[in-house]
Amino acid sequence: MKIFLLLGLFLFISCKTTLNVLENKDTCLTKCDAAGDERKNTDKIHDIMGDEDKMKNMMADSGLIVFPLRIGLVQSEFGDTVTTQKSIRETINILNKAFRKANINFNLAYVDTIISPLNISLLQSNYYEAYDAFSAQHDLKDTISLFLFDYDPYLCKTRDNVISCGRTGGFSYILSERTNNVVLSKFDLKDHKIVVHEFGHFFGLYHTFEEFQYGKELASGENCAEAGDRICDTPADPGTLYEVYVNYSRCEMIGNQDAETSEFYTPLINNYMSYYKPCYLKEYAFTPMQLKEIRVAAMSELRSKFMVGR
């Protein structure tokens, strides 16, 4: 992709018949401020986190935060995709388990059907203009929407005798007020990684391999507060281009050195905001500092307007 947007996008690795693995980092989605307010809003949250008095006042309110969640099933007029209430509730249970340590809970407000010819791939056309137009028409002012789209039926394409396969699982602007939604493929509705990953973006988290918005985090961690995802308990992550160094049985990257510092990379393979596959023995998780940032974002003016009782 050659799009330059700041979105949280979950893509799946594309492969060619030559077995060359394409880099799966969102270089196209994190180079600039697409919605116009992501970086500004991120800076607001980090200013709060760096102010002891503000943090003390904010964290004194340690009660449960409840967000109503509207589910929008998007399908063509003659669509035959069936998404059950059971599947939706299982998805909400997945979210609640992941966000429990931030003392955040999502409640199903209601489910509605939206007739549209768009699928999750078409939303990305023309620099995400289709997504912005859809959001402007269907977002709710005071409720977070989770829009469930069909995926492109042609996930594998052949060109010049080369087969290329890829799939978008979901996406969300990062802490932006431009939209009030998260987008997910119906294919990935009950995926324990993707739905949580996208809500992580909605509440301000960047990828662990982020480097285009704030610069590259060094493997030594010395610039962790200013670079990468700006969270210091998520070690520097070189991205899944270097997945060949990952031992999934041990859930660690082995032998990959940072060319600038000669330090070895030790990314959290099982972090929700990474792009790695599941480990055998470790569940996906947020770090304490990620949970703290989610909590601060949830209580800030940017997201508190969606809370029950606000």
Low-confidence stretches: 1-5, 13-32
Order of H and E elements: EHHEHEHEEEEEHEEH
Mean pLDDT: 87
Estimate percent helicity: 10-25%
How many helical stretches? 6
Question: Looking across the biggest beta sheet, what order are the strands in?
Answer: 1-7-8-4-2-3
User: What would you report as the Rg, rounded to the nearest angstrom?
Assistant: 19 Å
> How would you sum up the major sheet?
6 strands, mixed
Assembly level: single chain
The termini sit apart by 40 Å
Can you tell me the overall shape? globular
Strands, total number: 10
Structural class by sheet pairing and helices: alpha/beta
Proportion of residues in β-strands: 15-25%
Keywords:
310 residues, alpha/beta, six-stranded mixed β-sheet, 18% strand, globular, disordered N terminus
